[in-house]
Amino acid sequence: MMAIRKFTKSDLEACTELLITVYNREPWNEKWTKMTAGNHLTELIHRMRSFGFVFVDKTTIVGVLFGVERTFWSGEEVYVDEFFIHPSYQQKGIGKEMMRHLEVYCKENDLEDITLLTDKMVPAHVFYQKLGFKMSNKTVFMYKSC
């Protein structure tokens, strides 16, 4: 049975392993370790108003969404910090289902907007556009290496 449920702290290790599985391969090719990934997710879940959902296939976590509720000048919103699906479960509707779940969460909690950042060079940005997200003309993600 597949289901979406609220993240619990006992899910942290499985979510850590999944983050490594997803991001240390194409198209990201990042270099997450168990320590860095675990620390990253722990920092996310310990912030004020943070929340998470997991998509479970029987007993295995195959999708994760971490976000934070926050106040913005235009109202209360959700910022999606991390959202990843196991590679063998991608393009099967799980991501769409998790985003729909997030939209219901927003309605139930009087949250007006969902915000996130994604990379234009990976397939995720097309996924978000298909779900009705729009690219901002005012904001750009920039970086500089030291």
Gist of the model:
By secondary structure, the chain is α+β, with helices and mostly antiparallel strands. The protein has helices at 12-23, 34-45, 94-108, 124-130, and strands at residues 2-6, 50-57, 60-72, 75-85, 113-116.
Structure description:
It is a single chain. The chain is of the alpha+beta class. The protein has helices at residues 12-23, 34-45, 94-108, 124-130, and strands spanning 2-6, 50-57, 60-72, 75-85, 113-116. The N and C termini lie far apart (47 Å).
Defining key terms:
146 residues; alpha+beta; Aminopeptidase; five-stranded mixed β-sheet; 4 helices
Number of domains: 1
CATH architecture: 3-Layer(aba) Sandwich
Strand content: 25-35%
- Highest CATH level, the class: Alpha Beta
Low-pLDDT parts are none
What is this structure's SSE topology?
Layout: E1 2-6, H1 12-23, H2 34-45, E2 50-57, E3 60-72, E4 75-85, H3 94-108, E5 113-116, H4 124-130
Parallel strand pairs: 4-5
Antiparallel strand pairs: 1-2, 2-3, 3-4
Helix pairs in contact: 1-2
